[in-house]
Amino acid sequence: MATVRDLLRGGAEALAGIPGLDPALEARILLRRTGRLTELEILAYPERPVAAGFERKFWAAVKARRSGRPLAYIIEEKEFWSIPLTVGPAVLIPRPESELLVERALGFCRRKDPLILEIGTGSGCLAVALAKELPASRILATDVSRRALRLASSNADRHGAANVTFLHGRLFGPFRGRGLEGRADFVVSNPPYIAEAEWPDLPEAVRRAEPRRALIAGPTGLEVIRGLVRGAPRFLKKGGRLVFEIGAGQADAVRPLFGRRWDEVEVSLDWGGRPRVVTARRHV
Q1: Which neighbouring-strand residues pair with 253?
Q2: Which fold has domain 4-67?
Q3: Coil, strand, or helix at residue 2?
Q4: pTM, rounded to two decimals
Q5: In whole numbers, what is the pLDDT of the chain averaged over residues?
C-alpha cells in the first residue's frame, strides 16, 4: 500500500521537466487537496498508508496536470488579494497583475460607502476583494455567463460579501432602469481585450482550458474597452473613475478613445513594468 511519502515522491517525478512548474510543490498541493490533508499531517505522518480511493484521485490529478490543465482548475481554487476563491472552466483564473485594479480603485476612494459597478465579474475576484476592503460599499457586478455568475455568487457567499449583487447581461445593460445613472463612484472591469488574430499565440494551456469569450474581444481587441469608455459616463457621477485592465501594447490605442467628458487619463504599470491598468475621471 502506498504511503504519503510515496505519493509525494512519485508525483514530483511524474511532473518533473514540465516548463515553469515546481514539481515538488505542485505534487504537495495536489496531495493536500485530493487527500484533504493538512501540511502538518503531511510533515508528521509521511509513512501513513493512503486509501486506494485517495491514491486514484491523486494520480488522476497528476495526469491532468501533466496534460496541461491549469492547477487552479484541478484543485478548484485560486488566491486573489489574499482571498481563496473557487474557480472552474467557466471563468478566467484570476491573475496577480489584476490585483492592480483593486489597488488603483482603493487609492482613489475617498468615502467608506462608494457605489461600484463592475463589468465582467467572472469569478467575482474584483467584487469580493473590493467588498472585503470596503464593507460599507454597494457593488453591482455583471457577466454575460450565467455559470460565471453562479460561481461568483458562491465566492461572495463564501467570504460574507453580502454587499455585492450579481446581474446577468452585457456591458451596462443590466444597470439600466435601476436608478443608477450618474451615481457610481467607480466602474471597474477586467474586460476581454485580446484580438482574434492573437488567439493562436496564447499559451496552449490557456487556449485549451480557459473560456474563449472571456479573453477575445473581437477583431481589434478593443471592442469591449470602447463600450466601457462610451457607456461609463452615463453611470458615473462627476469625478467618478473608470478603472480597467488592458493588454500588452494597447496603451497608445486606448488613450484616443477618451473624449471631452474625461480627464486625468493615466496608465499604470504592473510589477513586470508592462502597461496594465487605465484609470480616467469623468469631469463633465
Answers
A1: none
A2: Helicase, Ruva Protein; domain 3 (1.10.8)
A3: coil
A4: 0.92
A5: 95
